[in-house]
Model the fold of this input.
Amino acid sequence: MQYYQTIWLSLAQNHTLMTVLTFTLILLLGAYAAGFIGSLSGLGGGVVIIPLLTTVLHVDIHYAIGAALVSVIATSSGSAAAYVKEGITNMRLGMFLEIATTAGAIGGALMSTIAPTSFIAVLFGCTLIFSSINSLRKKQEHAVKTSSKLAILLKLPSTYPEGKTRIAYGTKNVIGGFSMMGLAGMLSGLLGIGSGAFKVIAMDNIMKIPFKVSTTTSNFMMGVTATASAVIYLQKGYIEPVICMPAVIGVLLGAMTGARILIKANPRKLRLFFAVIIIMLALNMVYNGVVGNI
Amino acid sequence: MKQSNLGDRDIQLIIGNLLRYGVWTALTVATLGGIIYLFRHDREFVNYQTFVEHDDNIFDVIKHMLNGVFQGYGHSIILLGVMLLFLTPILRLIFSLVAFFIEKDYLYVGITLLVIGIICFSVFFGFAH
Done:
């Protein structure tokens, strides 16, 4: 009896009818693709899962944000583990900047509870377009020799491994980088993303830290930043276990496959290809947000 | 203060392992919960189109979850896995705190405490609204 009631209710509200099993399997496959694309494009699997959940599976954006954030914690912790062991990550730098990202994340997470869903969808789409275009720009390794006084006081300058030697680098513009990190944290809390692109801009472009150190330290910071907003998400009911489970497992496995392919294939061409796919997903999100479908 | 001293290298290895094992433990628990959930609810219909906002205290969320875990609910076991995942970065913070303390780097003991403080603040602020 209850069975038919559910069917009737769903049809009456024009819902897509799907059983738990179908939903889980589709999401698992989709999340695997998301993790794969996210890894090859360098944007992370969390961001691709949001358009998948909202536009394909018709899940409310709040649940999508919750599932994406959980996936972000899993993938970033997994990859951060390797970089920390190799000694590329600057843990002091990460720790210091986490003050800004966690504070920003809490602000963003609280904003997400009051912001209209269409606004979140449009902002998400724009952030995604910016991040994917940004991922295509050329990166050259640079290391400044001098550091600002504040950077020295905070013991931020360090070294990173290059072959068998370690290259020393300086750090500049601490306050500028710190402010940008606040913004990155806010976007992370508001959209459930790792916002790696913004973190890297803060360290690489503003603080003049070598690219390799910037990306790995950004990865290192994601877990703690995401946990700050995750606590609020948990209390607000964004974390739906039935959505999170296939999402996180799929994304992690997809990211692992992607990482393996990156070693063999030409990353430049792959990046371009997947950046185009992501931009199309993002435009679709913006469109759906504007017309009010999300 | 450079990586050349032995202390920093050890810390890197321990933190690296902590993150790795944390993620795998969390995922194993979540998968287990997922399998149990699927066995019992596979034919039910999903509907996540409308968001139901909660205003729960995190301690109630945890208490409720633990009750469910002891009764073998798949839903609660997945949530336990997700919670373990959230706990991994927090453990990393606590470990950093101890490490900076052993190194007598009190500036960074303070910075780590500040970050932990901000996260605690989110615990108390989240449900005050």
